[in-house]
Specification:
Layout lengths: L3 H10 L6 H6 L4 H7 L4 H8 L1 H10 L3 E5 L6 E5 L4 E8 L18 E6 L2 E6 L2 E6 L4 E4 L9 E7 L6 E8 L6 E7 L6 E2 L3 E2 L2 H9 L10 E3 L2 E3 L10 E5 L4 E5 L12 E7 L2 E8 L4 E9 L4 E7 L14 E2 L4 E6 L6 E7 L4 E9 L3 E7 L10 E2 L12 E3 L16
Parallel strand pairs: 12-16
Antiparallel strand pairs: 1-2, 1-25, 2-3, 3-27, 4-5, 5-6, 6-7, 7-26, 8-9, 9-10, 10-11, 13-14, 14-15, 15-16, 17-18, 18-19, 19-20, 21-22, 22-23, 23-24
């Protein structure tokens, strides 16, 4: 006699070719993939396979991250539907005094996103978490008030995630640079190997925090948007050699202080989005030939011509999606979604006061990491009790459900 499980498995999969089931499951959001494990043993085995989990991650959409208040929650925007969902929130156990949030470092901030992991800080405490698996860990070595995170990236070693940060030397008057491997008991200072004296001088002046100006990973190196402290050039950090160099932005861009620039990858090429605040226009440049530094210009004419405030510029994400905040004095702010062609896609379902767009995107992953701790079954985060993940226990995953990497 067939068991209930085999009957369920047979009725669920008999209508589909066997090789199609993993393809369909790989395209489910993490929450629904985890629920699908209850269908039958075959589906549970598929969802627990290491290679399948990596494939599932590759099929997940990139979702821009936005903040709605100084203390959260953090939300992800599904660009295809213009829907917004809560990823995590900080629990306000006691009323927060007004003076508490005068320092921007006290607010909930996103410093990086890589491989489904988020690097976040709140009240000067840093932590790494995976919202899909509800794992995380504090980074106590980043508690210093005066450091700035510059980049969060994955090294070539399997499963090794690193944080690049700078710290001022009060006596010398210049910045030193350090790398912390997530899960390591200590950080290490890196020697400033540079391509020129100008690059070294720029590094001594420091870089902008990755909250506002995160680097883009291109050709195994981190690239930062042009910054005044770097002489208006694009700073490049080779992850393997741990050396710094510079490349020049388009000479015709003629960037000034009020302009907002953002680097991203476009169809396998390094690209730069420029928002000229005074002229109220946007331009995309892409590097047609990286070795020869040949930049090509693409003009953009937006269907809606905003005048964004400097703290919250237009942000262009991969695939050419742009998010723009429409501030309203007597009503909730609105979040506009446009294409790089200028066509208005619509309003995001995220109307509230004080929307803050981040330049970071979340691409969810169910990969488990040994250097992260799991949330307890009662929903509490022992590693960061002020944090609460969205979606409830149905999104939880244990070490028996998947394999770490």
């Amino acid at each position: 006699m067939a068991t209930r499980e085999t009957e369920r498995g047979s009725s669920s999969s008999s209508q589909l070719p066997e090789d199609m089931i993993p393809e369909i499951l790989a395209r489910l959001p993490p929450k629904y993939l985890l629920r699908s494990r209850a269908v039958c043993k075959a589906w549970r085995d598929i969802a627990a396979d290491t290679e399948f989990i990596r494939k599932h991650h590759s099929h997940q959409p990139l979702q821009p991250l936005v903040l709605t208040r100084d203390v959260g929650p953090l939300k992800a925007v599904h660009l295809a539907s213009n829907k917004c969902r809560v990823v995590l929130r900080v629990i306000e156990r006691v009323p927060i005094p007004l003076f508490f949030l005068h320092d921007a470092r006290d607010a909930l901030m996103v410093h990086g996103s890589c491989g489904g992991l988020l690097l976040i800080s709140f009240n000067k405490s840093f932590f790494v978490c995976n919202p899909a698996t509800r794992q995380g860990a504090r980074l106590p070595l980043l508690l210093q008030n005066d450091l700035d995170v510059l980049g969060f990236y994955k090294h070539d070693d399997p499963g090794e995630y690193r944080v690049l940060y700078q710290q001022p030397d009060a006596l010398q008057g210049w910045y030193s640079y350090h790398i912390l491997t997530v899960g390591s008991p200590q950080a290490r200072s890196i020697q400033l190997r540079t391509s020129s004296a100008d690059v070294a001088a720029g590094l001594a002046r420091g870089l902008e925090s990755s909250c506002a100006s995160p680097p883009v990973l291109f050709r195994d190196s981190l690239h930062w948007s042009p910054q005044e402290s770097q002489g208006g050039d694009i700073l490049v950090f080779d992850r393997a050699a741990e050396s710094f160099s510079r490349i020049s932005p388009p000479a015709e861009a003629m960037l000034i202080e009020d302009d907002h620039t953002q680097l991203f990858e476009m169809e396998g090429k390094l690209a730069m989005f420029c928002w000229h605040q005074i002229e109220n226009k946007s331009v995309i440049w892409f590097m047609d030939n990286y070795e020869q530094m040949n930049w090509v210009k693409l003009s953009i004419k937006l269907a809606y011509q905003p005048i964004p405030l400097p703290p919250c510029p237009i942000v262009l994400y991969q695939e050419g999606h742009m998010l723009i905040v429409l501030y309203q004095e007597e009503a909730s702010d609105k979040l506009l979604h446009c294409y790089k062609t200028g066509k208005l896609h619509g309003f995001v379902d995220c109307s509230t006061r004080g929307i803050r767009i981040t330049p970071h995107m979340l691409k969810e992953s169910l990969v488990l990491h040994e250097f992260l701790q799991s949330q307890r079954n009662d929903g509490a985060c022992e590693w960061f009790p002020e944090l609460e993940f969205a979606d409830g226990s149905d999104t939880a995953i244990s070490g028996n459900d998947s394999q770490s990497t």
